[in-house]
Amino acid sequence: MISTKYNFIFIHIRKTAGNSIQAALMDFADDRVVFRNSVGHVINDDGRQGLDVFNSALGFEDQRDKHATIRHYQEKLGEKLHQFFVFTCIRNPFDRVISRTAFKMGPLKKQPQVSELVLPKPMMNYLKLGNRIAVNNFIRFETLQDDFAAICQKLNIPKTELPHLNSSERSNYRDYYTAETRALVTAKYAEELDFFNYTF
After folding, report:
1. Residues near 134 by beta carbon (within 8 Å), at least 6 away in sequence
2. Is residue 138 in a domain?
3. Which of 57, 66, 91, 175 is a plausible cystine mate for 96, CB 3.0–4.6 Å?
4. Alpha helices of 26-130 — where are they, by DSSP H?
5. Which residues contact 114 (CB under 8 A, 6 or more apart)?
6. How confident is the model at residue 169 (pLDDT cuts 50, 70, 90)?
7. What is d(CA 7, CA 82) in angstroms, rounded to the nearest whole number?
8. Structurally, how many domains does the chain consist of?
9. pLDDT higher for 124 or 160?
C-alpha cells in the first residue's frame, strides 16, 4: 500500500494484521481497496473480512500484490523508494505459524503434526533488499493499536481504531506446539526470531 500524498509505503506481511491496517489506511492511500469474503476460516465473516489492494499506476493488478515486498516497490519506484516512510507489522513467528495454520485448516482441536503446519514465507523475505533489511519502522502485532497510533502520528494522519479483520479462532499459540514442531519453527525462522528478539 502506497500514499504519495502522505509519503508512506506499508508492507503487508501475511498474518500480521495487515488487512486491518490497510482498511484503516485506505482513505489516505493511492490504492484501490476492494473488500470481499475471507479465503480462510475466520471469525464472523461478513463479506468484508478479506480485501484486495490494487494500484494500476504501479502495475499492481493481481490479488497477491497486496503482499508486495520492499523489493517489488524498489522495482517499481527505483531510487524514489527512499523518499517514502516505509513501515510494516511484525509478529512472533511461533504465533504467526499457528495463526496461518488455523486460517487454512479451521479451529485447531489438537497439536498439529509437522506435516500439518502451514509455514508462511519468512518475514525477512518481505523486508530485505539484497542481504540488508530495508524497512526500519515496525508495528509489533503484540502492541498493535499503540504502535499503529504512533505511526499515524508520524504520518500526520488521524489516529484510528483498527478493525479486527480476517482473524481465526484459537487459544494461546504455545498450546499447539510439540517439541518437534517448536524445533521446526525455531530453525525455519531463526533469523527473525533473533533480529526482532522473539522467543517461544
Report:
1. 70, 74, 86, 127, 128
2. yes
3. 91
4. 70-77, 93-105, 124-127
5. 180, 181, 184
6. confident
7. 10
8. 1
9. 124
185 contact partners, CB below 8 Å, separation of at least 6:
93, 94, 97, 117, 119, 177
Asked, for residue 150, whether it belongs to a domain, the answer is yes
Confidence class of residue 47 from pLDDT cuts 50, 70 and 90?
A: confident
pLDDT for 160 equals: 83
Q: 180: which 3 cell numbers?
A: 518437534
Residue 51 in any domain: the answer is: yes
Q: Is the pLDDT of residue 163 over 90?
A: no
Tell me the pLDDT tens digit for each residue of 55-103: 999 999 999 999 999 999 999 999 999 999 999 999 999 999 999 999 9
Check if the beta carbon of residue 84 is closer than 8 Å to that of residue 7.
yes
Question: Do the Cβ atoms of 200 and 133 come closer than 8 Å?
Answer: no
Residue range of the domain that includes 137? 2-92+122-168
Interatomic CA distance for residues 191 and 132, integer angstroms:
12
Mean pLDDT of the chain: 95
- The answer to whether residues 127 and 134 touch, using CB atoms and an 8 Å cutoff, is yes
How far is Cα of residue 2 from the mean position of the Cα atoms in its chain?
Answer: 15
148 found inside a domain? yes
Beta strands in 123-167 (DSSP E): 128-129, 132-133, 137-140
Query: Across residues 21-38, what is the average pLDDT?
Result: 96
Rounded Cα distance, 62 and 53, in Å: 8
